[in-house]
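Fold these two proteins, one after the other.
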Amino acid sequence: MSSSETEPRDEPVEALPAVAPQLRALRRRASLTLEAAARQAGLSPAHLSRLETGQRQPSLPMLLSLARIYGTTVSELLGESAADRDAVVRAADMEPTEAGGWTYWQAGAAGRGMQALRVHVPHGSQGDIVRVHPGEEWLYVLKGRLRLRLGDTLHRLSPGDSAHFDSLTPHRIAAQDPDGVELLFVHTLLQSPTAALCLGPTHGETP
């Protein structure tokens, strides 16, 4: 990320109190220095340090990026765990979490090679975030309409539509309708020095 780009805006400190200690512990477990992890995440070391000390809180896309870099899941970043890797996740046990304007529910157990989420993306929320990282992603539109940009191509998805793509293709997700869009989202968890979260060219731009 160049110095002319603006770092991602984060949530208030109270939003995710468990994140700070987990971020530091998991970075050290991955044998990454603050500088190396920040570079892979497209952040400055000072910004990542503020995340690790609880002065700032990351958005959901940033959590996904850090989880990939550290070879873990968003659940573990949040200090959550599933006992004995339960195969079944009951609806009553899916607690909503908000980050960066998105609301998401864990739809799979922690510690797996893939992570499954149910996600609500509000209209106008982080439509300028472009992600590029190793692995694959699959999403399925449950409700609302989705704008999915893959490289230079814009796709408009309606309920029942799905997409499965290589995550090294620059991709951007945004809700088309004022009520937002609800998705099922599955992604692979790969630890790689090329994993990164990048900003789109213009803040607030929609795909």
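Now the second one:
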Amino acid sequence: MKFKAALLHVIVIVSTVLGGLGSARAESLQIVGFGDSLMAGYQLPQNESYTAQLEAALKAKGIDVMITNAGVSGDTTSAGLARLDWSIPDGTKGVILELGANDALRGISPDQTEKNLDAMLARLKERNIPVVLVGILAPPNLGKEYQDRFNSIYPRLSQKYGVPLYPFFLDGVVTQANLQLEDGMHPNAKGVAVMVERSLPTIESFIKSLPAHR
């Protein structure tokens, strides 16, 4: 992650929070996509990020929703936990929580990753903000033991907090070079479109379950 890119994402998030939710779009269902570069849309125009493409897909289905992009490239679960409260403003009706990829890339202990995600879910539960949890799979080069410990985090937390789970954010993209940027790690705009298409049923079901939507 480059510093300038991260700073830009932080500025965008702060501007959104300071601006509040009392705009002309206040009647829209306010959702926050909270995550790392995969959520932020690393090296992509803002309108091609996951949150932007997902919002467009949901609106095409007649769901009036506004999805704020609170993704910061390079964030670990520790960094996400540190900024959780100010990144998710009061009035948020639901959160798409996606973090952990950078933990795995850095070989951070799965126990620490789980502790951080657990704390985030607990805080959001205290604030009565529903969550859909988005999972990440550890890369195979870290070994089977690490993979097994890391990959079990998301199903376990989903069950503990009773939140819906989309098991793997990069499903359909991770092995497809034509859907990735040159770094071989991040999706391009077409890759994001695949991510939206595959996750849409889970996200749509989550949004329709929200009290504010009914």
